């Protein structure tokens, strides 16, 4: 099958391309980032278009390779902090790109299956314990609002134009090649031999941590499943919560450091106290998370040390 990945040059996108090509699929990508043909082939992409997710680039892919059986839509904003600093840019990357993709699918490829990667940020704050897909959606950052707008656009095109779409709300994805956010920040400070890590928040914030290698297995499984409805939402989480302080302690332990951690106690803008998935729908798919957190943290530290030595 021919599968397209928007945002294929991003953190999750690169892992997803590897997973799909390993399953025997032909994968083409569009998004931002310069990749020469050799680099694209090494990544697993038969074709890479460096540019916007728009009608011109999507039509160019279709003209060269035919229509896709599946489209994985990963292009969009990827940071709460950046969405607060540059909200219109985040809107354009997330909402406008989705609108352009949906309009192209409506016009030229209405039978293609669309798998859209969203975020648990759509749930917002004030959720205690596991959050079901039917929970109230009260995002507290531009990032979360834009992901919700993206979902609503998808639902609209399914209802009005007969597209088929599955939304996967990811929680806290980490793993090799992640060069931002908490794990990267902590390891960068450990590399610099800081004796004390001063971090924002309280440290008690609960997150549902999932290794990217498991996440892309889940996305591929969603594409393969028989969909009961033309539109659906799945929590892409494990149902296991670990505090930010627990992650920091785990990284320090795998690093072999005596560094201590202090938290400011000040909640960060757009940062809920708890985001934990009710993973019942994933369990119904008989999907297993293969990589436990301890192994995932150890692998991340090993990767970080290797790439910083290179």
UniProtKB/TrEMBL annotation:
Residues 4-226 form the NAD-dependent epimerase/dehydratase domain. It holds the Pfam family Epimerase. This is UDP-glucose 4-epimerase. PANTHER family: UDP-ARABINOSE 4-EPIMERASE 1, UDP-GLUCOSE 4-EPIMERASE. GO terms for molecular function: UDP-glucose 4-epimerase activity. Keywords: Isomerase. InterPro entries: Epimerase_deHydtase (IPR001509), NAD(P)-bd_dom_sf (IPR036291). Belongs to the NAD(P)-dependent epimerase/dehydratase family. Pathway: Carbohydrate metabolism; galactose metabolism.
């Amino acid at each position: 099958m021919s599968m397209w990945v928007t945002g294929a040059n991003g953190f999750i996108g690169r892992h997803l391309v590897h997973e799909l090509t390993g399953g025997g699929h032909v994968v083409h990508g569009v998004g931002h980032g310069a990749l020469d043909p050799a680099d694209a082939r090494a990544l697993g992409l038969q074709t890479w278009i460096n540019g916007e997710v728009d009608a011109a680039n999507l039509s160019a892919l279709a003209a060269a390779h035919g229509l896709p059986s599946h489209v994985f839509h990963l292009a969009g904003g990827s940071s709460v902090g950046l969405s607060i600093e540059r909200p219109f840019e985040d809107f354009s990357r997330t909402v406008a790109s989705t609108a352009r993709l949906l309009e192209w699918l409506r016009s030229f490829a209405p039978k293609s299956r669309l798998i859209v990667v969203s975020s648990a940020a759509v749930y917002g704050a004030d959720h205690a314990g596991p959050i079901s897909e039917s929970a109230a959606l009260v995002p507290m950052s531009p990032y979360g609002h834009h992901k919700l707008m993206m979902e609503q656009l998808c639902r609209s095109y399914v209802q009005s134009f007969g597209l088929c779409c599955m939304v996967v709300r990811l929680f806290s994805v980490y793993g090799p090649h992640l060069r931002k956010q908490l794990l990267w920040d902590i390891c960068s400070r450990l590399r610099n031999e800081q004796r004390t890590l001063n971090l924002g928040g309280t440290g008690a914030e609960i997150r549902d941590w999932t290794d990217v290698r498991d996440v892309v297995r889940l996305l591929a499984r969603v594409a393969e499943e028989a969909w009961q409805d033309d539109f659906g939402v799945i929590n892409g989480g494990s149902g296991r919560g670990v505090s930010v302080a627990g992650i920091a302690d785990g990284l320090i332990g795998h690093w072999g450091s005596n560094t201590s951690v202090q938290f400011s106690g000040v909640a960060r803008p757009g940062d809920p106290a708890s985001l934990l998935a009710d993973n019942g729908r994933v369990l119904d798919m008989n999907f297993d998370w293969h990589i436990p957190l301890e192994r995932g943290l150890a692998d991340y530290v090993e990767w970080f040390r290797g790439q910083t030595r290179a």
